[in-house]
Structure formats: structure tokens, C-alpha cells
Design a protein that fits this description.
InterPro entries: ECM_Assembly_Org, EGF, EGF-like_Ca-bd_dom, VWF_A, vWFA_dom_sf. This protein is an alpha/beta fold. 30% of the residues lie in helices and 27% in strands.
Length: 733
């Protein structure tokens, strides 16, 4: 936006003590930013500055500096004056002196007052200035008194009252008003003015009645005082919000959508064209972006913040990101269902999962999202989309849609409500959360996603679009995680001893839950079992106990702490003899793995049992926390590749994906049908023609599960009973 017309602009800066040096610097910055869009020269825009406090002081007149650079340099050198807030005296100065260095009254005169609106006198002279044809903008600083700003400003006040704390927004509002009033043609053709609801905040001192107390009063008629009840009050400073309407200009500048990726610089070429200056190595693409495709199968829901905290500008940036992502990675053949939701105080489903015919219709839905404003309630939004966000349409009409479900949370402010439980509720229902936000939200997003590997942050809003490749890879890693195409029997051995402690045990439990949710749990793909050990040894649930991820998550949440002394060796023997068996649901011909999670204190007796498990074809992985006994844990794991050392219990969440990747690599290896042996009771497994059979000794059945001796006794008892019946029948007859 550029204002190139014959205009006289005078800044009236409040330099009083009520503003303070910090807010005075913000006033200077606003004036500095405003000058960027002014065509400053003696024939076009002239700029002057007047500072006031107890008395007004002319900093420089409108004809002092003929170029933009000179004006901006002089504004930077302004010094804070200090004193009382005599806004009326400054306005009277302008009534007497006019615009110093200005032109005749045929040139539009713009007075921009930057103040907190807390004048110590009347501001009535503003009415006389407006009667003389001077347009007054009142720009609030710090926590302004809005009623005084409305008295100062020209009509309509909603177009002439602004807030300097939001520099770009306020500058846009000022030029929108100038263009609407035909003062200058700041807005290029093709742009449009939009209105929206905005909030005005201030800090007010409020008198509150607190009660009454007994006091004594005298009177002229009586010499003796008398008792009575007197009220007493307190004075409190409270935040107040005022609803208003803001008018802003939105232009179709081709660089507004930030089309240049990976740090590329966008250079506009008119209103429709642009070119990208790309970093080294990325110049082969017009937008500095390698060709991407989202060829993994997922149900993908973008949950976009639309609260007042992100502002209209931030919301439009989110829309631009989602639009660019869809254009960059989706093709008509992509096996992906996309949905859109916007949240602030509540949630609005902009587009249900998969309810679009083609990509142009999806883009149209993105463009149709309207900024809502309001508070930030991320927890409420996560709960809502978990329950109602994934009523998806199948990718193919004849195939039941059971795709991984992913929520991409885009937020740039902290939630007003709790997010811990809603996020856990979402993850426990096998919904993956990928969080995107500013660097300052990193810890909050880590808590929401439950895994720092699914958190994407950026140092500045301009870096957002460069994160498209990161988001694409994280979405597809969700699809590839969990060994979706590989069958696996997986047992966790969880140390619940005194060495771990009560508080840390629940961190271990959360780690097991967050890791388990990444597997496709059912009878055909992944089965999960859990054993805890301390003073007691317990099979919490066997491999064939649960056939769904939801059931497994609920069972893990109920696992109690045991305490006592740990014996990892005894736990491994128990798993070998009583958990990884056909009777307990272990499947022949399926890869098997045991994950031991411990601080290593009870691992001295585990080397031999672990070797026995590994020799029987079962992989053993060890997650050792803290100052774990590395040599003992290495003997349990059998190799460095199967060890995962973790510095502290708090760091466990950083290693969920590491463990999943290692286990999945094992699950993809070739299977030996006889290791571990499916034959029970010392039966011998024999491979034959791609299958196996069990050679039984004193037992029979496919897996040597039935005793021959028991069968002979049963047969003899049956014959005896038949003879007995016939004998008594004969006697009776």
C-alpha cells in the first residue's frame, strides 16, 4: 500500500509520564512504520512531528525534511520529554499555529494523535480542529482510555480510532480510512475493504463496595458524637474489553500467500505475478520446493486456530499454508481424506473428512473459511474433533475405510483451558496429533502430541510455509509406523520395583501406552501383552486378551504400581514359559519381540534367561533409564542395536519412535516357523514344505497339547462305565 498524493501529515506524540519511555518508543515505531507507505517529497506527502506533555514542543516542521529516509532517521532520534498529560494544550497550539511548514487549506490535513487518552484537561479543542476540516486519527498506546480517543477522533470513530500495539494492523486501518475518504489512493485496484469484529482492551481502576463499619459522627445540634454505619470501598485495577468494528484492506498481492518455500524470497511482479529467489540447491523449482506427493493412506484433519490471539493476519497465514500444502502434495490419485475445522471458544467443522469431489472443490472450501475471533480453547477443540471429526467417507466405495487418523493442530497461542487430558483422550483413541506453532509453544505442543517427533515449530511466521516438507514427512511416518503390514507378537516387561518408584512408574506406563498406540492391534496384525514385576510377578494381560487398540490403552491405564525388589531374569523366564506360548495366544509363524523397560537395578540375573529367549527366536529390546548398568543391560539385549539408553524418565517421550522403528525392523525379517517352537511338552518342531509339524513324545495333538496317558485312562474309565451299565441292566431284567 502506498499513499502518493498532496497530503500534510502531522504526528502529535504523547510524551508524558503516564505513557512512559517504553510506550513512547512504540509510538515512534508506529510513526516510523507509517512512513514506509508514504510518498514523502515536497510535492506529495509532507510529514511533521509535535511532542507534548506539560507543554507542546515542535520536533520538526512539515517542510524540514524532503525525503522519506530523512524523516525516518529524524523520528528515530526523538527523545522522551516527560511531564503531565496536557492534550488540550497541544491541540490549542495547533489551532493557533496551524500545521508548521504545511501548505494552504486546499491540501488535506491529517493529524495523528498517539496517546493513552488520559489527559489532565479537556480535549474540547479537537472539535474545533475537526470543524476546520482537519482529519484526526486517535491511536491508542499502552492501556488507553477509549472514550477519550473516540472524543478526539473524526467520524465515523470506528474508522479513525486505532491501536498502536498492533503496528501492521493499525497502519492498514489508517490507510483503509484514507482511501475510503479519497484523501489518497493508497490501495491498488483489485483490493477490497472488509469489516470484522475486534476487541479493544484497557486497564481501568474500579471502585468496589466492600461493606460497612461502625463509625462515630458529631453534629452542630449535639455536643456528643453518635454511632452510625459508614461504607468502605476498595479500588482495583481490572482489564476491560470493548467490542468494536475494524475496517481493513485485503489485497491480492501474489506474495501474500508466501509461495516461495525453503527460505526463498518472493518478489512481486504486479498484482498477479511473482518470482522466487531461491537458496542454493533449490533453484530447480519456480517456488524453491522439491516435488512432493502425499502417497500414504490417512484420514487427515486440519484443526486451525481462529481466535483473537492469532489475529486476522495470522489466520490468513494458516489458510495460505493449508492451501499451499494441498496444492503441493495432493494429486487426484492421492489415497488421502482431508477435513477442515476452525476453533476458538468452540469448534466449527468447515469441511468434513473426505466430503469433496476433487482438489479444486477442496481448495474452494479452504478459501471459504472465515475468521471468527474469540478465545483459545484447544482442549475443548481436541475433544470435539476426537468425537465428531472423523466420520470419514471411504477412499474407494467397495473398501471399508480404516485408515490411520491424523489431526494437524495449527495454533500460535496458549490455551485458556487444560489440554493434558483432552490430548491424552485423543491419543488413546488411536488418533495421531501433529502440532504446529511458534518456537515459544514447543513445550506445550510436545505435551499435546505426546511425542516431540510430532511437533513442528518455526521461529517467525514467515517460516511457516517452509515447513510443508516437514509436515508431509511426519504425516507419512504415521502411516508407516506401527508395522501395519507386518504381523507381530509383542510383550512389554515393565519394571514396577522400588528402584523405579511410584512417580516414575507412571511415566513408564505412559511410555508403553504411547508406543502401543502406534501399532495396528488386532488378531491378524499386532498382538500385545504386558508383564509387570517387582516384589510380585504379574501378567497384566496376555497376547490374546485384547483385539483392539482401545482395549489395550484402557488396560494399560489401569496397571498398578507394585514396589519391592526387581528380578528381570525371573520376569523373562515367566514370559518365555507362560506368555510367549501357543496356549496364551502366541501365533506360529509370527515374529516375536520382548521390550524390557527398567532402570537396570534388577538385571543381574537376566543374562541366561534372556539368552534362552533369544535362542528361541524371540528378539529382546532393552530401554534403560538413568544410570542403568550398561553391561548388564547389554547382556540382556544381546547387541548394541537392541539397546536404547535414556538419560532420564522425563526424556522417555523422545524415544517412542526410536523403539517403534527398531521393533518394526525386526518384524519385517524372515520368519522361522520353528523358532520359537510352537510345539508344547518337549515336542520337536520339524520344517516341511513351507510348513511345520510337531513330533510328540507321550503327547498328541497338533502342538503336543494332549497327554496320551490321560487319554488311555479316559478310555479305560469309559469302557468300565459301559460294562457297569450293561451289568445292572441285565440284573434288572
Amino acid at each position: 500500500m502506498q499513499c502518493s498524493a498532496a497530503v500534510d501529515v502531522l504526528f502529535l506524540l504523547d510524551g508524558s509520564y503516564s505513557i512512559g519511555k517504553g510506550s513512547f518508543e512504540r509510538s515512534k515505531h508506529f510513526a516510523f512504520k507509517l512512513c514506509d507507505a508514504l510518498d514523502i517529497n515536497p510535492e506529495k506527502v509532507r510529514v511533521g512531528v509535535l511532542q507534548y506533555s506539560s507543554t507542546p514542543r515542535l520536533e520538526f516542521s512539515l517542510n524540514s525534511y524532503p525525503t522519506k529516509d530523512e524523516v525516518k532517521e529524524r523520528i528515530k532520534k526523538l527523545s522522551f520529554k516527560g511531564g503531565s498529560t496536557q492534550t488540550g494544550q497541544a491541540l490549542k497550539y495547533i489551532l493557533r499555529k496551524g500545521f508548521p511548514g504545511g501548505r494552504n487549506t486546499t491540501v488535506p490535513q491529517i493529524l495523528i494523535v498517539l496517546t493513552d487518552g488520559k489527559s489532565q484537561g479537556t480535549v474540547q479543542p479537537a472539535s474545533q480542529l475537526k470543524e476546520e476540516g482537519i482529519t484526526i486519527f486517535a491511536v491508542g498506546i499502552k492501556y488507553p482510555r477509549w472514550d477519550e480517543l473516540h472524543t478526539l477522533a473524526s467520524l465515523p470513530t470506528e474508522q479513525h480510532v486505532l491501536f498502536a500495539e498492533h503496528f501492521n494492523d493499525a497502519v492498514n486501518g489508517l490507510y483503509t480510512t484514507l482511501t475510503s475518504a479519497t484523501v489518497c489512493t493508497a490501495v491498488p485496484s483489485g483490493c477490497k475493504v472488509v469489516s470484522r469484529t475486534c476487541e479493544r482492551k484497557t486497564l481501568e481502576t474500579v471502585k468496589e463496595f466492600k461493606g460497612t463499619f461502625m463509625c462515630w459522627k458529631g453534629s452542630k445540634a449535639s455536643t456528643a458524637p453518635h454511632g452510625t454505619l459508614c461504607p468502605y470501598y476498595s479500588w482495583n485495577r481490572v482489564y476491560r474489553k470493548h467490542q468494536s468494528t475494524c475496517y481493513r484492506t485485503i489485497c491480492p498481492d501474489p506474495c501474500d500467500s508466501q509461495p516461495c518455500h525453503n527460505g526463498g524470497t518472493c518478489i512481486p511482479d504486479g498484482l498477479e505475478k511473482y518470482r522466487c529467489v531461491c537458496p542454493v540447491g533449490l533453484g530447480g523449482d519456480p517456488n524453491c520446493a522439491p516435488k512432493l506427493s502425499l502417497d500414504c493412506s490417512v484420514d487427515l484433519l486440519f484443526l486451525v486456530e481462529g481466535s483473537s490471539n492469532v489475529s486476522l493476519e495470522g489466520f490468513l497465514r494458516y489458510k495460505s499454508f493449508v492451501r499451499r500444502f494441498v496444492q503441493a502434495v495432493l494429486t487426484p490419485d492421492s489415497p488421502v481424506n482431508v477435513g477442515l475445522a476452525q476453533f476458538s471458544d468452540d469448534v466449527r467443522m468447515e469441511l468434513k473428512i473426505g466430503e469433496y469431489r476433487d482438489i479444486p472443490e477442496l481448495l474452494q472450501s479452504i478459501d471459504g473459511m472465515r475468521y471468527r475471533g474469540g478465545g483459545t480453547r484447544t482442549g475443548k477443540a481436541l475433544s470435539y474433533v476426537t468425537q465428531f471429526g472423523f466420520k470419514s467417507t471411504p477412499v474407494f466405495a467397495d473398501v471399508q475405510d480404516d485408515l490411520p487418523r491424523v489431526v494437524v493442530l495449527m495454533t500460535d497461542s496458549r490455551s485458556k483451558d487444560s489440554v493434558t487430558e483432552p490430548a491424552k483422550y485423543t491419543r488413546d483413541r488411536e488418533i495421531f496429533i501433529i502440532g504446529m506453532g511458534g518456537e515459544f509453544l514447543k513445550e506445550d505442543l510436545n505435551e499435546i502430541t505426546g511425542n516431540p517427533q510430532r511437533t513442528i515449530t518455526y521461529s517467525s511466521p514467515q517460516d511457516l510455509l517452509s515447513r510443508i516438507p516437514d509436515l508431509r514427512s511426519k504425516i507419512c511416518s504415521v502411516d508407516s509406523q506401527g508395522c501395519l503390514a507386518q504381523s507381530l507378537d509383542l510383550v512389554f516387561a515393565l519394571d514396577a520395583s522400588d528402584g523405579v518408584g511410584n512417580e516414575n512408574f507412571y511415566r513408564l506406563r505412559d511410555f508403553v501406552r504411547s508406543t502401543s498406540v502406534q501399532f495396528d492391534i488386532n488378531r491378524d496384525v499386532t498382538q500385545i501383552g504386558l508383564v509387570t514385576y517387582g516384589r510380585e510377578l504379574s501378567t497384566v494381560f496376555a497376547l490374546d486378551t485384547y483385539d483392539s487398540g482401545t482395549s489395550v490403552m484402557q488396560a494399560i491405564n489401569q496397571v498398578p504400581y507394585i514396589g519391592g525388589r526387581a528380578s528381570t531374569g525371573r520376569a523373562l523366564l515367566h514370559i518365555h514359559d507362560n506368555v510367549m506360548t501357543v496356549q496364551k495366544g502366541a501365533r506360529p509363524g509370527v515374529n516375536k519381540a520382548v521390550v524390557v523397560i527398567t532402570d537396570g537395578a534388577g538385571g543381574d540375573d537376566a543374562a541366561v534367561p534372556s539368552r534362552r529367549i533369544r535362542n528361541n527366536g524371540i528378539s529382546v529390546f532393552v530401554v534403560g533409564i538413568g544410570d542403568a548398568q550398561r553391561d548388564a543391560l547389554l547382556k540382556i539385549a544381546g547387541s548394541e542395536d537392541h539397546m536404547i539408553p535414556v538419560a532420564s524418565y522425563e526424556d522417555l517421550k523422545y524415544f517412542e519412535d526410536v523403539l517403534v522403528q527398531k521393533v518394526c525392523e525386526e518384524a519385517k525379517k524372515a520368519v522361522n516357523l520353528c523358532r520359537p517352537s510352537p510345539c508344547m511338552n518337549d515336542g520337536i518342531c520339524v520344517l516341511r514344505n513351507g510348513s511345520y509339524r510337531c513330533e510328540c513324545r507321550g503327547w498328541e495333538g497338533p502342538h503336543c497339547e494332549n497327554s496320551k496317558f490321560s487319554c488311555v485312562l479316559l478310555e479305560k474309565q469309559l469302557v468300565h462305565n459301559i460294562i457297569y451299565v450293561f451289568f445292572f441292566t441285565y440284573v434288572y431284567l
